[in-house]
Amino acid sequence: MPAHITRILTLLLAFLLLPHPASAQPVTPTTAWQVYGAPSAHSFDPAVPGAATITVQPPARRAEPWSSGAGIRIPGAIAAGERVTAAFWARAARPLRLTASLQGGAPDYAAFASAPLSLTPNWQLVTVSGVAPAAFAADSQSLSLQLGHADAEVSLGPVAFVRGPVDRAALTRRFAEYRPSSIAIDLRIPSEPDVTLAATLHLPAGRGPFPLAVMLQGHGPNGRGCFVPLVDRLTGQGIAALEYDKRGIAGSTGTYVEDVARLTADAAAAVAAMRARRDIDPARIALIGHSQGGVVAPALAAADPHIAAIVTLGGSVGDGFPYLHRAILGQMVHAGIPEAAAAPAADAAIALLQARADKASPATIAALRSAAIDRFQAAGFPRPQAEGALAMIDTPEAWAANGLRSASDLAALRIPVLAVFGEKDPLVVATTEAPAARQALSANPRARVVVLSGLSHWFQEGIVTGNGEEVAKLGPNLGSPRLVTLVGDWLKTVMAEGKRGG
């Protein structure tokens, strides 16, 4: 080949390998708005592309502009001199003027673009565009709307970010083709007595009626958002998911109380509300319960023959004070206390709780408390720790534990059951709980018990000790890909069988 041809081809190849600016096309639209400082609700509105919207309530009285608002991250890094345009759908309950900005985060929140918006009750596509004055790290910049001065309800739809010149025709096509992977709808579910549960129903893309998983949370003042990885997995495979705030928590009314009977009644109310919806298949409603929710799920399923399946994640298995004795003993042994020393302490704690349940005299209670503290000291606890350990056990919730029937509830089931435990769980110890689950479910050919190695009560990867202080460092609760895959695959199969059976 002649030298000059070789040189031309070499230069051409070098040119082709040079980095070039991204084409001026919008990324896939998203509806991942984050609202702060104001009540908001997800809803379904077919008048806007994708039909997934979020509505933000105005402040009760005029406040600082930044006191409430909505934002969404600009994906990826931004080069110096690069033009970025945010195009999004919005409306207001009545004519309203706002400002949209492209800006950074704390501490200065410096904006590199802003635009006035004139919203009306009709959906409209609005834009804000600017040129980056400097290079910005990935995901460091956001589209932001300050709503502290808004005196009307504002609804927001999907957003698309465009790099470089805007191709209006391409932008229009992207929005017209936009189909979110799921649509969230906020609901109010009535329960007794005179309680309203704030709930979010996550519907998959496509047409229903859909199978549904009702998510039941663990012990504590928990609200929505505890099952994000599982919800994403389920909706991605065509299964709707419902989560709700516990009574007295966040958006739910009533008084917060950790009462299994009351929590089971709330779960039953949620199931009843879902059976009445046209977009949910009433014959394919499953329950997924974590920790305490893993006790509520079998209790509800034992009472409701129309529940299709249940999944328990770190759910206790046992009946009454004998179970609680086993759990206390298991935790002490798990913590490294020899069983010979731990057993008398567990015996003394249960004797105290039995006396509480029997409404024994104050003198009897005092004597049993003193004896229990002595036994915990003998097991190796310094007296202040012995008193603290007993204080954690001697609670009204524990006094009512004699009514616990999770083993009997599981044994009564003939529906598909998946019971999952974490090998390093310090609260629901797998070495005792998994065998108890297998025994309770031994007559159910549709049941499966799984122990996941290296996971604790919160089912996260990277566990070292399994204790609670690790939780905040290891990503979302119930976020282990192994757990998410196990539950997702199992429930997909079960729901498909239920559809064929119907």
TrEMBL record:
Residues 219-461 form the AB hydrolase-1 domain. It holds the Pfam family Abhydrolase_6. SUPFAM superfamilies: alpha/beta-Hydrolases, Galactose-binding domain-like. The keyword Membrane does not apply. PROSITE patterns: PRO_ENDOPEP_SER. It comes from the Bacteria. Residues 1-24 form the signal peptide. GO terms for molecular function: hydrolase activity. Keywords: Hydrolase, Signal. Transmembrane segments: none annotated. PANTHER family: ESTERASE ESTD. This is Alpha/beta fold hydrolase.
